Input
Amino acid sequence: MAPITLVEAVNMALARALAEDDDVVILGQDVGVDGGVFRATLGLLDRFGPERVVDTPIAEQLITGMAIGMAAEGLRPVIEMQFSGFAYTCIDQMLNHAGRMRHRTQGRLSCPMVLRTPCGAGIHPPEHHSESPEGMFAHIPGVRVVYPSSPSRAYGLLLAAIADPDPVIFLEPTRLYRLFKEDVPDDGKPLPLDTCFTLREGSDVTLVTWGAMVRETLQAAERLEQEGITADVIDVATLRPLDMDTILASVAKTGRCVIVTEAVRSGGVAAEIAAHLAEHGLLSLFAPVMRVASYDIVVPLSRLEGRYMPDTERVVSTVRKCLAFG
Amino acid sequence: MAPITLVEAVNMALARALAEDDDVVILGQDVGVDGGVFRATLGLLDRFGPERVVDTPIAEQLITGMAIGMAAEGLRPVIEMQFSGFAYTCIDQMLNHAGRMRHRTQGRLSCPMVLRTPCGAGIHPPEHHSESPEGMFAHIPGVRVVYPSSPSRAYGLLLAAIADPDPVIFLEPTRLYRLFKEDVPDDGKPLPLDTCFTLREGSDVTLVTWGAMVRETLQAAERLEQEGITADVIDVATLRPLDMDTILASVAKTGRCVIVTEAVRSGGVAAEIAAHLAEHGLLSLFAPVMRVASYDIVVPLSRLEGRYMPDTERVVSTVRKCLAFG
Amino acid sequence: MPVVSRFEIESRQYLDEQGRACGAMPECARDLATLTELYRQMVLARSFDQKMLALQRTGQLGTFASGVGKEAIDVGVVSAMKPEDALLVTYRETTAQLARGVSLLELLIYWGGDERGSNFAVPRGDYPVCITIASHCCHAVGAAYAFKYRKQPRVAVCMLGDGATSKGEFYEAMNGAGIWRLPIVFVVTNNQWAISVPRAAQTAAQTLAQKAIAAGIPGIQVDGNDVVAVRDVALEAMERARSGGGPALIEALSYRLADHTTADDASRYRSADEVVAAWKREPIGRLRNYLLAQGAWSRPEEEALLKSCSEQIQAATQAYLAHPPPQPAQMFDHLHAVLPAAWAWQREEALDGSSHDGSDHTR
Amino acid sequence: MPVVSRFEIESRQYLDEQGRACGAMPECARDLATLTELYRQMVLARSFDQKMLALQRTGQLGTFASGVGKEAIDVGVVSAMKPEDALLVTYRETTAQLARGVSLLELLIYWGGDERGSNFAVPRGDYPVCITIASHCCHAVGAAYAFKYRKQPRVAVCMLGDGATSKGEFYEAMNGAGIWRLPIVFVVTNNQWAISVPRAAQTAAQTLAQKAIAAGIPGIQVDGNDVVAVRDVALEAMERARSGGGPALIEALSYRLADHTTADDASRYRSADEVVAAWKREPIGRLRNYLLAQGAWSRPEEEALLKSCSEQIQAATQAYLAHPPPQPAQMFDHLHAVLPAAWAWQREEALDGSSHDGSDHTR
Ligand SMILES: Cc1ncc(C[n+]2csc(CCOP(=O)(O)OP(=O)(O)O)c2C)c(N)n1
Ligand SMILES: Cc1ncc(C[n+]2csc(CCOP(=O)(O)OP(=O)(O)O)c2C)c(N)n1
Ligand SMILES: [Mg+2]
Ligand SMILES: [Mg+2]
Output
């Protein structure tokens, strides 16, 4: 089997889920003949037909609300929001209904749906195509938020998300869609949700990140290793609920933590991780918990995007600052 | 002048803003003859007429988007979302447009609007009337988020919000609307945005909170004082941007910090404050930064509401835990 | 200039305000057994409504939204449904829920502020009360999609108010239902008010039924105080939907005879005269007159019915007041199918917490 | 059963595919000077569109959405506007923006990925490109409300696509415009496609114009490749709106002759035949034929126009390429009127940061 890209891994997982379970239905704008604007649903219409791979009108609230109704009836809808910049209108349905249906009916109805959407900046597109809304989503009770960072994790986590009996928001790092390939056996094996992945081990500092920033963070770790500084690199992967045990254990070992996020600095998942460390990891910390984040501003149009979001250099220099402390 | 409630102070500020500036227009469901479901706009229709106090259809995206258009034309719309549980559909317009109009046009068009909405639980209403969405709003670049906790602060901060040249989300603690009264002179004086208010001074611990929880926090501080424990109590008031200087200075003095929030625990403003302390206040801290928060679950219907959100007891016991540390 | 499309909105009524036939009656008017059953449902619902208001006033129930005045719409629509269909309602459809088989006790528990009231024993597939206006229109589309996908002859019925027709989701949902020709019937109760906002301020459209034209689906108006007419249009729309003919919109004209909810005081914004006039058109007396005239109902039956209603309601109320209070565990136990490990300590803490019986209702 | 309301949707066309009058011409067809000016605008816009595509292909511009095929709609609508009116556009209305006075350089800067391109010198009051489908419909309602509130005789014109008519905000906005009888004209470019989704899959409604009926406002269809017809219906709607007659919806029929954007390949989902057939109905040749037949245009004028267009575009492109790159400060300087103190250090850090000229465009 040839190595595949992240978006191909998404496609492979979707195809497998459709093949294995008639209850799986895909919906979204241009998911049919076009195969999705990123080709995540390529070939699925031909293989599974227009009732299972459904082009929708441009109506994000309908798409999300429909998925909730379908899921309540026992289907397993997987919806594609074309870009996460257009997914803010879905927050209402996800928060007020998807995350509540099971609780509201005390288990009578449930909502096994997946909302997939490409996330993050760095592909130089028009406005609204570079959003990092994960912090908002990760604040919604009753909903899981998953954000893979490699082809194999995209495959295994998406299968797990589709199989999960509850709603999952599945964020896909646009910038990584085609950036690199991996061997991903189509074995149908899900990866565990609610669990961090430790991608690299070291002893001097814990680097915590997710989504596309895993790449810059791994690069930073490599550069630092050349200076003799070794790092645990943790891909958080599931942003709600957070697997803080893995992160706390690493920080207990290294004593230092730098969190790397593409979202704006104030608020969001990075804040939650740092807050948790301030509450439960204080005695482990030799240095302040530092965040490398995008600035607290509107994502600029493409020419300044590179000055807005963190790059490897910003990660490296923050780690150096963190190590210099104390 | 007789003392007035928080909702009367809101009404007084709105009346004053309408009287002083023809560009101020109020819009929302039932804000006209009904005076708003909480009576925040009582009497304004009679005084200012139906073109300035406008009953809208039930269309939250329209209301918000309309305000953006009005503001771009130089009006100063103040919209009322009937409950914050119905304001999630507005996130798209606030984030993708209100917070961006000035940046997007490099200053040519701007968005001096205010979105008011009652927030928080504790009044035993039906579902969706007990939300604490401030963490989501406070993650939106280009937008201020303000949350007063007393009649006088509601008056002064609302005047400041209306006068501000940029969009402000103004959250009003439903539970405090009529709970107590204060003398509030109708002097037209705004209070400063972007600034915390220190409501009580002490030396043993810093209690940080906002909105309705200010009340439980002050009560906790009083109870603790009887045990000889004194606390700085800080009402954050503006949640974006955060005045961390005031909080850091207090923690530098006390060495301990407990953050009290009605929102669900994971994520949100409490996390941001704790994260900031973990980054810039580490050396001041004698104890973990503790959060007293609602559980990470769906706000339950009224009978269990009291078991969901923090009460004075939870604040007191957490402070004791914090003081017992180390 | 050429006209490329033409549309008409029809309005249907069979019983006048006195319950006399006005014109040729439809087939369903001859089924007096069913009409009598609908009458019983309406009377039970109205008595229950009064009890709910009384319980709320005495602090034994939370905020309640009275359905008085719209009973004909609720029972007429439900009478056209099959058990396996799905009903999606707002907070004002207690009558429809009763007609579907939700128990008095469950409704009391729900309005008392406890999620267990939405775990209906019957009908298992109906949706819980939807408070966020019009958002459930989209759920109905999804449910109807599932029925069609599985080739099941089932219909989703989505009830909403006149104010709800201003929400974008209503249009998005109608449009989607039209595209996929789904088995779904939208029923708008036009009770002339959305809290304090009158129908005329909600839209410049002459009728709400014509909003269907935007989605290319049939729309029809009906006198919502005339249970015969409601049942007739509902049967027509449901049968078409069930047999693959696609969705429809029904606008049922009625009047909100009560305050918006127990937290509202409608005298602030509408005249007593208007309400008095509306009472003359209310649906229960109208149907009673018709049944009496047809010889299908009698005074003794009326008395027996009232007695039975009051007994049922009394028994349910007692069961409600004796029902064990909700325990904190229920906040956690259906958040997810299995509580994620990360929240386990929170559940424990909540269970240890200081006791609170939750019986106070201030709004 | 009584019919309570009736509606008709009319469609308007004056020039056939060859540019010949088909029936009686409207008054505005006699104003050949204006039509010639519109022709010039259309030709400039199409040349510019080609240049944009070329610049994108060679990595000198970001993703671009071609407006080829809809020039008659853009210039026809704008020709009915006054400078003080407000135009609200999507990403596909470069032609309309040019016609309003936005400069070629500004458009290049914007599509090059730089906010300074939306700080138009003229028209100061027009809205920047709106990418989130239909959300600007609500802004248009607000702008129109402000005009009416201030008793200014100004009109808000909101342009959107066929796909956008499925979004809830479009309906919410039309409904609001109807309620307050606002001076606003919604113009839907029905170019038959929303990326890969054909018009027929977007709604079951026979026309998009009939969606106006849901809001109780007038809706009309027009041949969007016929600039005379577009100008005629636009003048009518604008004049009515300006004089207090309220809003309207215009559906302009056309075809998206290009890929959706430079990131799209339309041959994946539609046939070459369809596109070839659509080219036969395109608007520029049609108007040229009409003007030539009227003696209002000549070959030498055509040549001079083409030359002038290419010179203007060349000059603008050179200015664009020579334009100083955006500086990080601009990310902060218009976030708020005054940057909050809390973010000051971030601005400083960004200004110190490693240099990045931002000239690469990978999509
Ligand atoms: C999205 C949303 N916005 C606002 C509200 C607050 N609200 C509750 S009921 C109501 C009026 C609804 O009117 P209508 O649809 O006519 O139904 P009725 O109450 O008359 O049955 C409003 C505005 C809500 N529940 N949901
Ligand atoms: C709210 C929203 N959803 C999705 C998109 C992605 N998107 C961009 S253009 C487009 C198709 C729009 O079609 P139409 O309205 O017909 O306009 P056209 O592109 O044909 O001019 C889509 C789905 C978007 N920009 N905004
Ligand atoms: Mg109503
Ligand atoms: Mg289109």
About this structure: The pocket of thiamine diphosphate (ligand 1) is lined by residues B 29, 58, 60, 82, 86; C 92, 131-133, 161-164, 189, 191, 193-195, 256, 260 (CB under 6 Å). Residues 328-363 of chain C form one domain. The two ends of chain C are 58 Å apart (CA to CA).
